[in-house]
Amino acid sequence: MQEVVKGIENVGGILQSIGSRRYLLVCDAAFPHLSVSLPPEGARFDQFTSNPLYEDVCKGVELFNREGCDAIVAVGGGSTIDVAKCIKLYCRMDPSVNYLEQTASDTHIPLIAVPTTAGTGSESTRYAVIYYEGRKQSVTHTSIIPNYAVLEPRLLKTLPLYQKKCTMLDALCQGIESMWSVNSNDESMKYGEMAVEYILRHWHDYIEHNTDRAAEMVMLAANYAGRAINITQTTAPHAMSYKLTSMYGVPHGHAVALCLPEVWRYMQEHLGETSDPRGEKHLEAVFARIERIMGSDALATFLSLMEALQLPSPVSVSPQEDLETLTNSVNPVRLKNNPVPLPASVIYTMYKNILNL
Questions:
Q1: Handedness of CA 110, 12, 124, 163 (dihedral sign)
Q2: What is the CA radius of gyration of the chain?
Q3: Would you state the pLDDT for residue 16?
Q4: pLDDT > 90? residue 136
Q5: What is the distance between the alpha carbons of residues 93 and 143, in angstroms, rounded to a whole number?
Q6: What residues contact 267, with CB distance under 8 A and at least 6 apart?
Q7: For the ranges 107-111, 135-139, 182-186, which has the lowest average pLDDT?
Q8: Is 0.85 surpassed by the pTM of this model?
Q9: Contact 219, 317 (CB under 8 A)
Q10: For residue range 187-220, what is the model confidence (pLDDT) as tens digits?
Q11: CA pair distance 85, 225, nearest whole angstrom
């Protein structure tokens, strides 16, 4: 069971309580500029890219074992936490065999995650993403949910404005998607509702005024969104977003937010085609629940937020080729979590609308 703790000053006490003598600090290049104080670590690992490679993780595993570490503290965004999760999962495996091909089991290595962005909620999920031979690898195991999620809102204060917008939108989209996912349950619904409600209530103060209270609530919203997605997994907007990011360099949260309105609009017009075993009435009730939080025209509320944040669509220089590439890129496995099936022809049209073609 994960424990959510407020305040980075508690990391030392956590390490002491679990009996750690030497921990591995996993962090990114921004760590030295965060002005935070942590107990002296056994080793520091920051040799990985923003889209971490399998080879990067291997280096982290080697360092963890060479230094005799007994715990991991991850301080950073989603990629940093993903690297730490994989180091935890792989550190007891045979290094002579590809870790991705081995059977994963709980290593019981304590993992403390301190997010420095409010977006993916990775500090509370069983998922990690790394890249092997140029291809995205989704790593999933319940044991990589960090034992402790330490929320420190002041770490958000110095984020670049565009990054704040993108990560916040990722959390908002995860909250919404978790609510309509075919895998939703009562617990995930509550988490998703809180994520959406907190972001809508505090986004303006967070983005425009950078207040402490707004930062605290948006960070908590992102954590709730992560907890929700940990149960439900993501749906079509996320499945459609990844190629937008790789083709146009659009950050993940921005890309998801471009896709979500198209999926939302189509589903509302095709409720009777739902694949959710709970049926059309259930999906109608979910949309009504979203509207109770976001207003009677929830989709319009979302679009107004996008307009206020001034996040444009990417520009395509080879429209026909791009549309075909984008359509063929969508992972059908991720689409199975979407409550209304999306044929390839529909996805093609959605991308056409996203690119304003």
A1: negative
A2: 20
A3: 96
A4: no
A5: 14
A6: 180, 283, 338, 339, 340
A7: 135-139
A8: yes
A9: no
A10: 999 999 999 999 999 999 999 999 999 999 999 9
A11: 19
- Residues 348, 349, 354, 357: what is their CA dihedral angle, to the nearest 10 degrees? 100
162-180 pLDDT tens trace: 999 999 999 999 999 999 9
Beta-carbon contacts of residue 40 (< 8 Å; ≥ 6 apart): none
> Of the candidates 343, 220, 212, 354, which has an alpha carbon nearest to the alpha carbon of residue 273?
343
Place of tokens 């994960």: 2
User: What six digits make up the tokens of 115?
Assistant: 């997010």
